[in-house]
Structure formats: structure tokens, C-alpha cells
Specification:
The protein contains ten helices and 15 strands. The protein is an alpha/beta fold. The chain folds into three domains: 88 residues, Periplasmic binding protein-like II (D-Maltodextrin-Binding Protein, domain 2); 76 residues, 3-Layer(aba) Sandwich (D-Maltodextrin-Binding Protein, domain 2), CATH 3.40.190.10; 92 residues, Alpha-Beta Plaits. The protein is elongated, with a radius of gyration of 21 Å. The two termini are 35 Å apart. The mean pLDDT is 92.
């Protein structure tokens, strides 16, 4: 079983179907609930969003991960295709309002304005679709996924309703057990690490210097203050390379010399999207 945060038809649910079509997917109300389900053995995996190309990072996830004994065993990039949904008997001429998550509404703002629709903020996209389905009102529409349309018996009035194409969400796949892939020279990998530095001059420079001297490329660096403390920063880094590469071993050895509480979250195959033109734009 794989779990996700949201309701049936959410983009996280769609990601689960695309990556693990044979696995049962279960919705959880919160990110914490989904991650705890894996930690406590109620589910094998969790599909968790960490960043979106338009909305940025999901900060809550970076605060939850250090508190849990979970491993990152994969990543997935899911294109966000917003659809304008309504009841089967509705039409573009009949709808007057559209509901969705505020981010989805913002991402479709120009198209919403062109149709003269009133925006109604909802907790999530799939929930908005469910409401329209249950309302029986042909004046109401929702912005959600094509999966939500299928699950709630709605008609897609407009596909690709977002104002800009290329909106993508990166997910990490979490497991309670480590699943280190065998290193293969022709494949690309990402290694994720969290660590803490003391509040001393050049602390971050010293901790990260080993990656530069060993020719290891950092592709992501996130920082936050753990537990409300102001005297130390915690960092999450994503690095190109496999944990068993000699250059990675040397870099982590140097990191551990200067940093505190170094924890490897996992090494996993890099998603093909990283090699695409859209990723580098």
C-alpha cells in the first residue's frame, strides 16, 4: 500500500497511480498522518510533495522528515495539468463560479478572468471537484485533475486550463526501510542528506567544502531553524551521485568532520525529468 496526503483525485493520488499502478493508494488527511502510517508499518510507502516549480517548496515536509525514521527511496516529477470540471449537463455558458485550492486558482487566473467566473477558494482541488459533483448545480465548476473528473463523474470543459505550461511538482517516495540501489555507472543518482551546523563563522562553508574539492555537485540546499532554536541551522541537501561512489564517500567524510547530526536519508535513481530541457529552463 502507498499513502498520500489529500483526498481521492488529488495530484498526489495521480502520482501514486503513475508510479505504482498496481499498488493500493490510500488518502490521509495530513502529511504527518501519511508519514506516520509508513513509520508505524501501516503502509509500505508514502508519496510526498516537496516542491513545485510555481509555488516553491513545501516547507512543512522539511520540518517533518528529521523527526521521523524514514528513508527516501525514489523521486517522481508530476506535470500539473489543471482541468476545468463541471457536471455532465453543464457547459462553458452555464458555469458562473469555480472552486479550487488558492494556488490552482492563481495558476489559472487569466483563463478564469476570460470566462468571467467568480473564484471560490477551497481546501484542495479534488475536494472542490467532489463538491461540484454532489451539488447538482450546473453553474458551479472546479479546477482539478483529470483523475478527479473520472472519480467524481464530471466533464472536462477545458484541459490544460493553467495560464503557463510546464508547472511540475516533485515528489519523494518514503519507506521505513532503506532501499539502496546497486550502483551502475551509466545511471544517474541523487543522494539526500540532512545535517546541522553550529553557529560559528564559516560553518556552512566548511561543511560543504568537501563536495567542491571532490567534484560532487549539490543540486539543492534548504535551510531552516529546528525546534524553534535560533542558535543553529539545519540543512537538507540533494547531491548528484550514489552513496557508494568514492567521491561521495570522501565528501560525506569531510562533511561529518565539520557538521553535527549528519544523516543520510537515501540514495536513489534520479528521475528522467532532471535530464529534460524543462528542468533546466
Amino acid at each position: 500500500m502507498i499513502v498520500y496526503q489529500g483526498v481521492e483525485g488529488a495530484y498526489s493520488h495521480l502520482a501514486c497511480q503513475h508510479v505504482f499502478p498496481q499498488r493500493q493508494a490510500r488518502a490521509c488527511e495530513t502529511f504527518l498522518e501519511a508519514m506516520q502510517a509508513v513509520e508505524q508499518g501501516e503502509a509500505n510507502l508514502a508519496m510526498i510533495p516537496v516542491e513545485n516549480s510555481t509555488a516553491g517548496r513545501v516547507e512543512e515536509i522539511y520540518r517533518l522528515i528529521p523527526k521521523m525514521s524514514l528513508h527516501i527511496v525514489g523521486e517522481h516529477f508530476e506535470p500539473v495539468n489543471h482541468c476545468l470540471l463541471a457536471l455532465p449537463q453543464a457547459s462553458l455558458a452555464s458555469i458562473r463560479s469555480v472552486g479550487s485550492h488558492p494556488q490552482a486558482l492563481a495558476q489559472c487566473n487569466n483563463h478564469i478572468a476570460q470566462l468571467g467566473l467568480v473564484e471560490v477558494a477551497k481546501l484542495d482541488t479534488a475536494g472542490a471537484a467532489c463538491e461540484v459533483s454532489q451539488s447538482g448545480d450546473t453553474t458551479k465548476a472546479a479546477i482539478a485533475s483529470s483523475l478527479a473528473a473520472e472519480l467524481y463523474g464530471l466533464k472536462i470543459l477545458r484541459d490544460n486550463f493553467q495560464d503557463e505550461q510546464g508547472n511540475t511538482t516533485r515528489f519523494i517516495i518514503l519507506s521505513h526501510t532503506e532501499q539502496l540501489p546497486v550502483f551502475e555507472q551509466h545511471k544517474s543518482y541523487i543522494t539526500s542528506i540532512i545535517f546541522r551546523v553550529r553557529n560559528i563563522p564559516a560553518a556552512l562553508y566548511k561543511t560543504l567544502g568537501g563536495f567542491a574539492t571532490n567534484g560532487v555537485n549539490l543540486v539543492k540546499l534548504e535551510s531552516y531553524m529546528p525546534g524553534g532554536r535560533l542558535n543553529a541551522s539545519q540543512f537538507h541537501v540533494d547531491i548528484e551521485g550514489h552513496l557508494n561512489m568514492r567521491s561521495m564517500e570522501l565528501a560525506i567524510e569531510e562533511l561529518s568532520f565539520f557538521a553535527e547530526e549528519v544523516r543520510v536519508l537515501g540514495s536513489y535513481e534520479a528521475h528522467p525529468f532532471r535530464a529534460s530541457a524543462n528542468f533546466h529552463e
